[in-house]
Amino acid sequence: MIKLIYFDFNFWRVDILRLCLSFSNIPYEFERVPRQAWKNRKKEFPFGQLPIMIVDKKIYAHTHSLARFCATRSNLYDKDEHKILIIDQVLDWANEITNQIAPSIRAAMREKNFEKSKKLRKEFIKNSLHIWFSYLENLLNRYSSDKEFFTDKFSIADITAWRLIHWFVSGKLDLIDASFLDELPILKNYHRKLSQFEPFSKLSEFKEILNQN
Ligand SMILES: N[C@@H](CCC(=O)N[C@@H](CS)C(=O)NCC(=O)O)C(=O)O
User: Which atom in ligand 1 lies closest to the alpha carbon of residue 51?
Assistant: First the structure.
């Protein structure tokens, strides 16, 4: 049995693992660590961060590594080395854009410095938002012939891209309006179609993300 541990809110780093396992009907246990408990529990984890995964009593960390494992188990990775490179780039893109927006989130959540957060968010919107999403659109354009899936077959790359796009258009990120995607019509259409891809959208995890985020 695979066990996943993350905080008590939905975030792409663990959601992509859950969606992936669920898509292939692989059972998993999921523990949510309340934010207040984190100070005491941080030292339990190999890199002092979440998500982590426990398999056969061994503990593993880092989103990309866990995603690769869960996707392989779920048949949502690939065997072709070129396709693997496409998938890995989407996962790395997700980490990169998260790193770009993280300072503005941290300023608000940890430092409670809302003025600083607003300033950092404006900088992110000006310097990174469009350009980093256009990198993703370019990736889709370059590799996908049908523009429905990154590798022309549903994979963890699509789960990740969908989850990240959803995060940025959800309205939950202050000052970021969903209309930024209007300038990227191929990506916008890709996201719309994926949201209606029934084997994916019927998952309870998918519905949970839509309802909570
Ligand atoms: N390199 C890690 C980064 C994970 C990460 O940044 N986790 C954050 C939550 S999204 C965390 O655990 N923050 C709490 C802390 O660092 O104390 C990965 O790829 O999973």
Answer: 20
Q: Can you give the pTM of this predicted structure?
A: 0.97
Q: Atom 12 (ligand 1): residue with closest C-alpha? A: 49
Q: Map out the domains of the chain with their CATH numbers.
A: 2-73 (3.40.30.10), 81-212 (1.20.1050.10)
Question: Measured between alpha carbons, how far is residue 75 from residues 8, 20, 23, 169 in Å?
Answer: 28, 9, 10, 28
Residue 63 is encoded by which pair of tokens? 């989103």
Task: Please indicate whether residue 45, judged by its CB atom, sits closer than 6 Å to ligand 1.
Answer: no
CA distance 144 to 152: 6
From CA 180, how far away is CA 123, in angstroms rounded? 15
In the chain the beta strands, taken as DSSP E runs, fall at 2-7, 28-33, 52-55, 58-61
> Using one digit for the tens of pLDDT, what is the confidence trace for 27-68?
999 999 999 999 999 999 999 999 999 999 999 999 999 999
First to last CA, the chain: 28
* Pocket lining: 193 vs ligand 1, CB cutoff 6 Å: no
Q: Which of helix, strand or coil describes residue 93?
A: helix
